[in-house]
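Justification of resources, computational component.

The compute hours requested in this renewal are based largely on the per-chain cost of generating structure records like the one below. Each record pairs the submitted sequence with a full structure-token output. That output is archived, and it is also reused by downstream analysis tasks.
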Amino acid sequence: MNSASEVKGTDEGVTSEDIASSFPTLVWKDDDENDSKWFDAIEKDSESSQILKNKENQDIMNMRRIWSYAVLGLIVVIVFFDCYMVSKIGSHEWSFDSPIIVITVISDNFLKIVGLGLLITREIFKKIFK
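The structure output for this chain reads:
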């Protein structure tokens, strides 16, 4: 590494003025027209990015709404199937050799309903579960 005296070429001390004077001088032009164009371009980019973010958020909410209704429909189908199965077994139209089959099917469907409900709740309300 070069010391300050090696840069100047002598053994005498280097002052901050010597260092600052070695840099090129920058001239700042106060150009209001360029500034306003620059600010307008930034503002336009900001507005378009905000519009894009809002559209993306709206699309995500629409997708969540569609999937929520689809899973809700699946839960309704499972519940109606359980009701239908229990009514058929109760009216002796269906009979099974072992009652454990009915208990297993109803328990499995109950766990599916709870799991799907938790899945939907957790995905829709992500901010609450963080």
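The chain has one domain: 4-129. Residues 1-8 have pLDDT under 50 and may be disordered.
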